[in-house]
Design a protein that fits this description.
Layout (H helix, E strand, L loop, with lengths): L43 H4 L10 E5 L5 E6 L4 E6 L8 H33 L4 H11 L5 H19 L1
Antiparallel strand pairs: 1-2, 2-3
């Protein structure tokens, strides 16, 4: 159409420059670091050593025979339930009851851990410990660690007294 370049960009359509592919720089990954696996991803053992890795507070609860173990966050989310090989002796219903009971206890322990952390922070800030404990338990529904220990002892006493 034009005999001349009104926009001044005809060079872009001319001869290709030294880089013909804009994504060519992304093709080279370089040598693998010692802490990386062969596929270039960091191994799980290295994640623990990373300075920017967040640490999580986890709580675990097990039944008295340690056949069922539940691990939870302090927020109450169950992360995993581990089963020992002996669970094959339980019926499906018994196993379900054990998993539910142990998971509930892990959630309660997580709430108690939250209670303890918040109570300690509030104490360090100069707040009255008795008022803080009362507020956390009554208003926020966070049980004290002692309350959870009593509930755990009661649960195990009731559950395993029936088995005898």
């Amino acid at each position: 159409m034009y005999d001349h370049d009104p926009w001044g960009d005809d060079d872009a359509w001319g001869e290709p420059g030294p880089h013909t592919d804009e994504l060519a720089d992304l093709d080279y990954t370089g040598p693998l670091d010692e802490q990386n696996d062969a596929d270039g991803t960091a191994s799980l053992t290295d994640v623990d050593d990373a300075p920017e890795a967040e640490s999580l507070l986890l709580v675990s609860a097990s039944n008295s025979a340690a056949m069922v173990t539940a691990t939870a966050l302090t927020g109450g989310q169950i992360l995993r339930v581990e089963l020992a090989p002996q669970v094959v002796k339980l019926t499906e219903h018994e196993l379900a009851e054990e998993i539910i009971g142990v998971s509930a206890m892990a959630r309660q322990q997580g709430a108690a851990a939250r209670h303890a952390i918040i109570a300690e922070i509030m104490r360090l800030l100069g707040h009255d410990p008795a008022a803080t404990h009362s507020f956390l338990e009554r208003n926020l529904g966070l049980p004290t660690p002692d309350t959870v220990l009593r509930a755990k002892a009661e649960m195990f006493a009731n559950r395993y007294a029936e088995d005898d």
